[in-house]
Design a protein that fits this description.
Elements: H1 3-15, E1 19-20, H2 21-28, H3 33-46, E2 49-55, E3 62-68, H4 70-78, H5 80-85, E4 88-94, E5 97-102, H6 104-119, E6 124-131, E7 134-141, E8 147-153, H7 164-177, E9 184-190, H8 200-212, E10 215-221, E11 230-235, H9 241-245
Parallel strand pairs: 8-9, 9-10
Antiparallel strand pairs: 1-3, 2-3, 4-5, 6-7, 7-8, 10-11
């Protein structure tokens, strides 16, 4: 099976929604669009996905959509551990503790599945208005937009230094989260530890506490199955600094 096929299947399975070829091409970065058409037709003939005319969950237009079949979904539950192992980027020991890292796409999908379970809602990538003529696409958003989540996965540098350059994308995410109204705003990190045992997430909070305001910060560690994943809220939401300033 090609990488593109696996990417499409993983996406449709994790989202459990219907997507047209155009939106799959856009969301997964698979181009040209014709590639999606060819692969999805093949997956349809194999019985992995369904293809029929209906409303796309993303663009909301009536088009030919793709959706994972119930048969494959049931099989995927049984094979989930094998599937996830294929997505592992690294397995290593720090201070006698074993940590597993997922590739970013797999990590985002994993967080989406976790959120679906604990909130009993469907989370998907969704664009929200963050300014005049400005839209930002957030990683995972609940169906009613009340919970907005950004996923980040960084590691310490080879010399055990804080990855300041990469962290800039998390600072950008904080800015965009400050521009929306939501009951809960969350940044979920796939945590990492240096040789001293220092948590990257905790270090991030110490450095940027003054900017976080009403944003929760979660540390997510991947287990051998989603039931064994470890999720810890490292920072609870607080009042917005600028709101207090102008009271």
């Amino acid at each position: 099976m090609s990488k593109h096929s696996e990417k499409i299947i993983d996406f449709l399975y994790s989202r459990n929604k219907s997507f047209c070829d155009d939106c799959l091409s856009k969301l997964l970065g698979i181009e040209p669009r014709q590639t999606i058409y060819v692969i999805c037709n093949k997956l349809y003939k194999q019985g992995t996905i369904n293809r029929y005319k209906d409303e796309c969950s993303y663009c909301k237009k009536d088009k030919l959509i793709n959706r994972i079949t119930d048969t494959y979904s049931n099989k995927s539950v049984l094979d989930s551990e094998t599937t996830l192992k294929n997505n592992y980027l690294d397995l290593y020991n720090n201070n006698n503790r074993a940590f597993t890292r997922l590739l970013y796409d797999a990590f985002e999908n994993r967080v989406g599945l976790y959120l679906n379970r604990i909130f009993s809602d469907s989370f998907r990538e969704k664009p929200l208005i963050v300014g005049i003529n400005k839209v930002h696409k957030f990683d995972l958003v609940s169906s009613d937009n009340s919970i907005v989540v950004e996923c980040k996965s960084y590691t310490w540098t080879k010399d055990d230094n804080f990855p300041s350059a990469k962290i800039s994308t998390a600072i950008e995410a904080i800015f965009y989260l400050s521009r929306i109204i939501a009951d809960r705003k969350i940044i979920v990190f796939q945590d990492d530890f240096n040789k001293k045992g220092e948590s990257l997430v905790e270090t991030f909070i110490k450095r940027y506490e003054g900017l976080l305001d009403d944003v929760e910060v979660w540390a997510y560690q991947v287990g051998d199955s989603i039931e064994n994943d470890s999720v810890e809220i490292k920072r609870e939401r607080k009042d917005s600094w600028y709101k207090n300033l102008y009271k």
